[in-house]
Design goal:
The chain is of the alpha/beta class. It has 2 domains: 281 residues, Aldehyde Dehydrogenase, Chain A, domain 1 (3-Layer(aba) Sandwich); 182 residues, Aldehyde Dehydrogenase, Chain A, domain 2. It is 40% helix and 23% strand. It contains 15 helices and 21 strands. The protein has a 7-stranded mixed β-sheet, sandwiched between helices. A 6-stranded mixed β-sheet has the order 10-9-8-11-12-20, sandwiched between helices. α3 crosses α4 and α4 packs parallel to α5. It is globular.
Amino acid sequence: MEFDSIINGDFVASAERSQNINPSDLSDVVGLFARADRAVTNQAIEAAAEAFPSWSATTPQLRHDILKRASDLILQRVDTLGRALSREEGKTLAEGMGEATRAGQVFAFFAGECLRAGGEQLPSTRPGVGVTITREALGVVGLITPWNFPIAIPAWKIAPALAWGNTVVLKPAEIAPHSAWLLVQILAEAGLPKGVLNLVLGKGSVVGEALVEHPKVAAISFTGSVNTGRRIAQGCTAALPMKKVQLEMGGKNPLVVLDDADLDLAVEAALNGAFYSTGQRCTASSRLIVTKGIHDAFVARLSERMQALVVGHALDAKTQIGPVVDQNQFEIDLGYIARGTDEGARLIGGEVVKAETEGYFLRPALFTEADNAMAIAREEIFGPVACVIAVDDFESAMEVANDTDFGLSSGICTTSLKYAEAFKRRSGAGMAMVNLPTAGVDYHVPFGGRKGSSYGSREQGTYARDFYSAVKTAYTLA
């Protein structure tokens, strides 16, 4: 089946197409997806620009109703959307359905935000003068989304953009575009006017670059790699006029396990954070920093649990770990496994798994005897690969945890209130978890990090308004 870009409510074909392959079964082609060029991208931007004046002038009630209908439709189709997501990206079916549910919840939340826009009215320091502070839409917003959450991340960017009256050009990841395509179709069914949301399928180096350079695009929100994010930021500041930019770029997240931790709880937090979703989460626990008193018991228990995980076809109900997303990521993961061994760490697991279908199946890999200077502890792998770093005590654990170029998520397992509070205060990450996996954030709270992980305003929750709206201060002489 062929899938085209969607511009101004119409399907727009491209001369080139890319195959979307099921990573659980390489013989299963999900579809042939358009590979748009710069001209098609510019067409989408012009459609969004033309739709902006009328959409930004709509009432909060109208925007609420459309977003709420979209939420209802998504939640009614969780089974279908979850299965489509798992088929193209490789998440287990339970994870795929959970992500589709999250997308519906996000739209419901931002439907409510349409009615909570608010503002301020203040007296001036000058007599007889009033001050009104309001928020306004930016204009055309370019959204560039990754493959690892192919419906949730488009949802948490699209929903606030529309709630605040912006129009959108969405460019989903080329290797997992089907979920975004289905989401755009649902929004049209919910009554979103033509041109307000436009979907451009294609390569980031073509579509993304056109979005960054076009003068009618007011802002870019990007989730992806650090290197690409930096190029986008440079392009947005070099463009005329300059663009507002928001970047989410990954992590190398620590989970600290102290001697006083509940061992079973700590192991389950590490197992979930490091290996679920095949480790393909920017919030994954890729560095397990463990004090020496509990180290051996923790490693033994975690090794036992991880090697018992069922690796297989994403749509098989028995599967706990699905395939790696594609050949390129599969080779990256195997390369880091070889590199960790070469660096002197001891490998547990990490074998290629043969299944009934040909796919990118990899057993979770755990490195012990690692140190924080190794590449496997410094660089984001984005696969089911984690390392254990032994430390003496809480102070040395904090030093290692914060010794990273990233700062997205962090966690600690402890029964000590003293250490839990100290960790939350001293963690160099934007999110800190106590006795929980580092992966897993509610949809109504801010998401984002520090250092090389994030740049610009936070995503999600009420904090999303800071990116998707502009503040205006108006004075009136009475």
